[in-house]
Amino acid sequence: MRWLVTGGRGMFGTDLTLLLQERGEDVVAVGSAECDIRSLDAVRATMTGFDVVVNAAAWTAVDDAETHEAEAFAINATGARNVALVAAETGTRMVHISTDYVFDGTATEPYQPDHPQNPQSAYGRTKAAGEWAIRAVNRDALIVRTAWLYGEHGPNFVKTMLRLAEERETLTVVDDQVGQPTWTRDLAAYVVELVESDSPGGYYHGSSSGQTTWFGFAQEIFRVAGLDPARVLPCGTRDFPTPARRPAYSVLGEQRLPDWAAPLATLVGTQT
Ligand SMILES: NC(=O)c1ccc[n+]([C@@H]2O[C@H](COP(=O)([O-])OP(=O)(O)OC[C@H]3O[C@@H](n4cnc5c(N)ncnc54)[C@H](OP(=O)(O)O)[C@@H]3O)[C@@H](O)[C@H]2O)c1
Prior knowledge:
This protein has 272 residues and is α/β, with parallel strands linked by helices. The protein folds into two domains: 2-149 and 181-208, NAD(P)-binding Rossmann-like Domain (Rossmann fold, 3-Layer(aba) Sandwich); 155-179 and 210-271, Alpha-Beta Complex (UDP-galactose 4-epimerase, domain 1), CATH 3.90.25. 37% of the residues lie in helices and 19% in strands. It is built from eight helices and 14 strands. A six-stranded parallel sheet has the order 2-1-3-4-5-10, with helices on both faces. A two-stranded parallel sheet has the order 6-9. Strands 7-13 form a two-stranded parallel sheet.
């Protein structure tokens, strides 16, 4: 199969591209300079001769989206629709990466793929709009929601914790947001599996099994790195106000990926 990855230089796009290359697939990764998905013409010019397109391109600066919602919408909604439209025109299978932020975070049990959207942030609104826009033009598209991504090829929570561990004796991390830290390699493998098994179009949840808080995640990073987890102290979201509201409960149902802590040893090993 011939694969195109838009947003192919981002944290997830890079890992997906590397995985496909390792598997001997024919893959082309494009960044915004080669294919700006806001432009339908650019997408049409790029998307010729592919069997699969994975749209990993997005405005991912969650807090900045609060003051730049139109710019975020142009990428996360209009851009996603452009890819979906050209995929439908060219008979290319589309996979789109979406987010737990399309939900409001008030649930008490894992969100199933058919749960109604109710985003609480500008970023979440633009991603939710992208999902709707894709479904309107391409019912065959696979929309894969993921959460709390961390990977080797991007700035992420694991790297931040390891850096702070060198700079400070103790650090405080929020303990009242629950979610599923998800390794980009695991998500990449899931995307390939969905395509290879010719899964029907619709919504899928691609997040790790299990759940934890940012505090629990930080403690586990310390433990795996051979540091004392007691150096990580819990605090509340109210102690770290941010422009965008974060969902308090972000656990996605359909947990087919490995446990959230399983890949940490591999990643921490590459960072220390
Ligand atoms: N990170 C998370 O915790 C998380 C959680 C849930 C869902 N997601 C979703 O997962 C996907 C991948 O996230 P990520 O963390 O890998 O993101 P990322 O590292 O920020 O990468 C996003 C990529 O999008 C590209 N991009 C931005 N504007 C573009 C445009 N106009 N046209 C084409 N490409 C453009 C950028 O390419 P250039 O660098 O070439 O400009 C960038 O490399 C996104 O859809 C995101 O919403 C992420």
